[in-house]
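Researcher: I'm preparing a figure for a lab meeting and need a structural model of a single chain. I don't have an experimental structure, so a prediction will have to do for now. The sequence is pasted below. Please return the structure as tokens so I can convert it later.
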Amino acid sequence: MKSVRYGRYTGEDLGLGAEDLLQALADFFLGSGFDDPYMQFSQFNQHSLENLKRALEEALARGDMFDPERAEQIRQQLESMSQEELDQLLEGLVRKLIDEGYINAERPEGGRDSEVEVKVTDKSIDFLGFKTLKDLLGSLGRASFGAHDTRDLSTGVESSGASKIYEFGDSMNLDVNQTLFSALSREGLKLPLNLEYNDLHVHQSEYQSSCATVLMLDCSHSMILYGEDRFTPAKKVALALAHLIRVQYPGDSLRCVLFHDTAEELRIEELARVQVGPYYTNTREGLILAQRLLAQEKKDMKQIIMITDGKPSALTLDDGRIYKNAFGLDPLVISRTLEEVSRCKRQGILINTFMLASDYGLVNFVQKVTELCRGKAYFTTPYTLGQYLLMDYMNRKTRTIH
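Model: Understood. Here is the structure written out token by token.
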């Protein structure tokens, strides 16, 4: 693949910054196939340079990046432009995105300009995660969040408990007042003051446990059917959660599993390009992979967050064949899937499920899951998924760590 190199754009850009452009194009880059649910499915989105320009043109016409007055001015400017001027504007905006490192443009060997493929960079993924997280937390009226609190106390930088006598291995977060008081109580008020080892007191802080999370995303075909796109919001929430963990909970880990006919791990950075497919729902295979990934993590807490809109309808048999049955609650599929839920419980893995549908089969299955592993179940919509998931992640009660 050959990279398409652009110089810095110095012409008219309507005063738009690269971040404004990227935010307006979020749905374009995170698309799930909802616009054409009967397209030829592929694992990764293919964004051409021409498609990107059309998406930019539509975003400018909608005026989503401007206040109403500015949007009307832009609309009039666009109407007064010739096709050549409009093409030049769009070309310049694409150059700006490339120049600031938000997208890469590559042309296949021997390919034409119309075949140039556009891909988002890790910088874009991080920005989209930040913006999604900010929007979600803003709607909740919350400005900042701490780490996962337990009932134990440990020495640390932030003090929130009584001080204690220093022991070897404690963080040297010295409580000066208590240390001096201890020495004065023994020696009296005199100079020089003799400090002994037992006089040293350190602040205690709440013990903040670390958590390993596997986010299981259902990418079966139903996630884009029935009149709404459920997969794009799920991808946005995954990016927001990844950003939250990186910024607020650096001791935590997040890994992502896609489950459909089978299951596979996916890097968060690759999530933006994933589409749903003509797949069934092999929840058991997703749980098996999630357990394998959590076994690699050395954390105090381990959990699985599952986002789905359908009951299990597929199963990988011992000989590798995929058994499928989308009608009703298949006894074989359900029983084998619940066996994996029981294994999760025995390993101390919590399973919280976020349902994007409320059909009988799904609700019945999720009720059994929560009964087995004592997790939580939420019925949400694509519009409330992020709020429920993030609040659950930040506010859940944890077991005591010994």
